[in-house]
């Protein structure tokens, strides 16, 4: 009679053979699974995107970085850890291998240390103060904010946006738009307003953005042309030192052109096209404020008048819709404070020249922007708004016309 052990031994042997067979079958499957991920990655890396039949225009689906910046296509995948930048003029994204602590040659000479703007301070000479001399009064002296707490945060944000404008590069469109918003808030500070206008590249960038008029901005952000106009207006508001800085570079600045544009100079844009009723009332209001700050300088104001810059302002008064009331009030304030109201610092006699034009001339579309038509449109504003500013504009225009009655005639009213 067979023992129990002799019956179990064949069963154990069969079980072992089955387990061994399963292990052998599972091994290739596991190997296949483990190699699937690298194989897929390799496939993605070598896969090409072709939008045309020309093979030379194809490019890898996964961006292949080098130590030099290369354009990144919209449908390319970017590996992590690259140095990515956005050209704020063209919108072209570029990337390269990131090198920690690499110096940016475009920022050479920029007064920024650890993202905080520094001010070069000349050491004053030792002066012997006469006995009994009045105590020195530093009122009006522009002081750098203390670099601590919120002020340090503001300084860092200012420096980052300052760099974006100076180099034309930004990490992303969202970063740039957020930076412009913060810069607009800081521009009203007399110190930061001056720092903005001291750099010719930054001033040029703001003028170019203000004249771009293309509505570029990330979703939910203020259009960049409007934001740039507001920054310039803020920097120049009650800041004579900032205006003096722009006046220094104005001859060179006004003759320059922008990276993206039709070849028109900055002065062409400023005299003829800074204000356009094709823009939103909010943009126009900001642009009028920027002009108001700039023409407080005598040379810039003279060029503005000689190049018919007042026509673009008058076009704002030609609008009838209620949403234009705020911009129209800004225009009236500019005209009163600069040319008509001596109590507000206006230099009388510079403008207007000659008599008012006839109603028929000013009602015609082809001649409604003649310089003699300001009175006609001021009267329209009185009838349309009935506000104190419109009444004062009409009244002071009439006084100025009488004072200049000996100048060339534009046709009697």
Automatic annotation (TrEMBL):
Entry keyword Acyltransferase: no
Matches recorded under InterPro entries: ARM-like, Sil1_fungi
Name of the protein in question: Nucleotide exchange factor SIL1
BP GO terms, sorted: protein transport
Gene3D superfamilies: Leucine-rich Repeat Variant
Signal peptide residues on this chain, from the entry's feature table: 1-31
Molecular-function annotations in GO: adenyl-nucleotide exchange factor activity
Key words of the record: Endoplasmic reticulum, Protein transport, Signal, Translocation, Transport
Subunit composition and interactions: Interacts with KAR2.
Lineage, opening ranks: Eukaryota, Fungi, Dikarya, Ascomycota, Pezizomycotina
Native species: Trichoderma longibrachiatum ATCC 18648
Any single GO CC term annotated in Swiss-Prot or TrEMBL for this entry: endoplasmic reticulum
Similarity comment text for this entry: Belongs to the SIL1 family.
């Amino acid at each position: 009679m067979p023992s129990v052990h002799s019956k179990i031994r064949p069963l154990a042997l069969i079980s072992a053979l089955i387990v061994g067979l399963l292990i052998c079958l599972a091994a290739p499957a596991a190997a296949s699974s483990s190699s699937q991920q690298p194989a897929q990655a390799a496939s993605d890396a070598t896969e090409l995107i072709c939008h045309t039949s020309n093979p030379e225009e194809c490019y890898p689906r996964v961006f292949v970085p080098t130590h030099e910046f290369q354009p990144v296509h919209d449908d390319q995948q970017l590996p992590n850890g690259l140095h990515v930048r956005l050209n704020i003029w063209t919108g072209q994204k570029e990337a390269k291998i990131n090198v920690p602590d690499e110096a940016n040659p475009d920022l050479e000479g920029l007064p920024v240390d650890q993202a905080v703007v520094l001010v070069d301070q000349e050491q004053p000479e030792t002066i012997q103060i006469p006995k009994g001399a009045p105590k020195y009064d530093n009122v009006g002296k522009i002081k750098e904010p203390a670099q601590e707490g919120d002020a340090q945060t503001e300084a860092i944000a200012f420096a980052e946006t300052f760099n974006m404008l100076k180099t034309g590069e930004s990490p992303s469109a969202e970063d740039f738009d957020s930076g412009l918003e913060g810069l607009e808030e800081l521009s009203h500070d007399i110190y930061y307003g001056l720092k903005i206008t001291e750099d010719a590249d930054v001033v040029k960038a703001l003028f170019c953005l203000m004249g771009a008029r293309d509505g570029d901005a990330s979703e939910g952000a203020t259009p960049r042309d409007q934001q740039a106009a507001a920054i310039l207006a803020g920097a120049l508001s009650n800041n004579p030192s900032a205006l003096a800085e722009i006046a220094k570079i104005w001859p060179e600045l006004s003759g320059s052109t922008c990276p993206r544009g039709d070849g028109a100079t900055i002065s062409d844009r400023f005299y003829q096209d800074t204000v356009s009723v094709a823009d939103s009332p909010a943009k126009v209001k900001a642009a009028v404020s920027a002009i108001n700050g700039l023409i407080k300088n005598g040379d810039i104001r003279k060029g503005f008048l000689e190049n018919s810059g007042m026509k673009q302002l008058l076009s704002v008064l030609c609008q009838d819709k209620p949403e234009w009331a705020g911009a129209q009030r800004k225009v009236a304030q500019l005209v009163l404070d600069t040319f008509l109201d001596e109590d507000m610092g206006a230099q009388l006699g510079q403008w207007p020249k000659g008599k008012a034009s006839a109603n028929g001339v000013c009602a015609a579309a082809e001649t409604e922007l003649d310089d003699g038509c300001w009175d006609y449109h001021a009267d329209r504003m009185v009838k349309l708004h009935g506000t104190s500013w419109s009444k004062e504009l009409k009244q002071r225009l009439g006084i100025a016309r009488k004072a200049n009655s000996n100048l060339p005639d534009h046709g009697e009213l």
